[in-house]
Amino acid sequence: MDKFTELSGIAAPMPLINIDTDMIIPKVFLKTIKRSGLGVNLFDEMRYDNDGNEIPDFVLNKPQYRNSEIIVAGDNFGCGSSREHAPWAIKDFGIRCVISTSFADIFFNNCFKNGILPIVLPKEQVDLLMQDAEKGSNARIQIDLAIQTVTSSDGVVMKFEVDNFKKHCLLNGLDDISLSLEKSDSIETYETKVADIHPWV
């Protein structure tokens, strides 16, 4: 998993509330078990018409937001079914951070496991960042995970909270497999011991 330390990126404003996982990645794309290739279908039903043509008014189809690395969203982002494909699609598109007033619990935890930083801020601060994001590619929001700050393009600094263990995993690029491999010496010692005690196993 890629490490997340600092990010200075363009933020796409998505003021909708209750953006659910089916909006993020519709169920028709859930057949794959690969984490790559889903970015093209992120927000598919909002990005494309029935003929597969881009809808110009959708934020990520606008030239100034095509390279967005941050989403500033309305309340309750990631609600709905607990599909891990949702953070896969977000990450594959290139989004590394989502900022909202609240997230659905399962989506929130899945983000950390896939190298995405979900940041919870009070509504007045999210509203300020939403206005900042509406400036387009001329405005870059800065995020520093180590000191837990978000800085608007105008220099307004906001502190955010994050669980220490989740922060450690993001800073060091540790997913569940990497965390297990950190214990490989202990696991090998245990397996050797068990093999000596129960050689028939």
Secondary structure layout:
Layout: E1 6-14, H1 21-24, H2 44-47, E2 70-73, H3 85-93, E3 97-100, H4 105-113, E4 117-120, H5 123-133, E5 140-144, E6 149-151, E7 157-159, H6 164-172, H7 176-181, H8 184-197
Parallel strand pairs: 1-2, 2-3, 3-4
Antiparallel strand pairs: 1-5, 5-6, 6-7
CATH 4th-level superfamily: Aconitase, domain 4
**Cα radius of gyration in angstroms:** 19 Å
pLDDT averaged residue by residue: 92
Order of helices and strands: EHHEHEHEHEEEHHH
- Tally of extended strands? 7
Sheet with most strands: strand arrangement:
4-3-2-1-5-6-7
What structural class do the secondary elements suggest? alpha/beta
Uncertain segments: none
Question: What do these coordinates show?
Answer:
With 201 residues, the chain is an alpha/beta fold. The chain has a single domain (6-174), classed as Aconitase, domain 4. It is 33% helix and 16% strand. The protein is built from eight helices and seven strands. A seven-stranded mixed β-sheet has the order 4-3-2-1-5-6-7. The two termini are 34 Å apart.
